[in-house]
Amino acid sequence: MPDHEPEPKRFEPKTPVQLDPPKDDPISIEELSKSDGTDPNRPTLVAIKGTVFDVSKNAAYAPEGQYHVFAGKDPSRALATSSLKVEDCRPEWQDLDDKSKTVLDEWFLFFSKRYNIVGKVHS
């Protein structure tokens, strides 16, 4: 697929979102894990393929939310395989089949149109 094709409209938010320029600040795994929505003094963060998104404004990632399992983690594998299992909420996705990798890329695009990128996971 050529790079110049327009992105699919199905990933566009229903109401336009004004996003800040992406940041590439280093965020440790420990820092990410503390940003799981349980501490009101910290943002709620979710990483996809090592890129960290601030999902604080979406109640679905809060402790009582349906996607809280992803908060404070890099759940790339779970997103790629459409899983809400805690054991699938891990960053390893490179060994998945092409279909799952496409699903993960679509999730990345979905997040990148809705949430600010605040950094990159570093170990």
From TrEMBL:
Span list, region Disordered: 1-43
Occurrences of domain Cytochrome b5 heme-binding (ranges): 27-122
Top-level taxon: Eukaryota
Alphabetized InterPro entries for the sequence: Cyt_B5-like_heme/steroid-bd, Cyt_B5-like_heme/steroid_sf, MAPR/NEUFC/NENF-like
GO terms, molecular function: heme binding
Membrane-spanning parts: none
Basic and acidic residues: compositionally biased ranges: 1-13, 21-39
Family as reported in the entry's similarity comment: Belongs to the cytochrome b5 family. MAPR subfamily.
Alphabetical list of SMART domains matching this protein: Cyt-b5
Pfam families the UniProt entry points to: Cyt-b5 (PF00173)
Protein name (database record): Cytochrome b5 heme-binding domain-containing protein
Gene Ontology CC entries for this record: endoplasmic reticulum; membrane
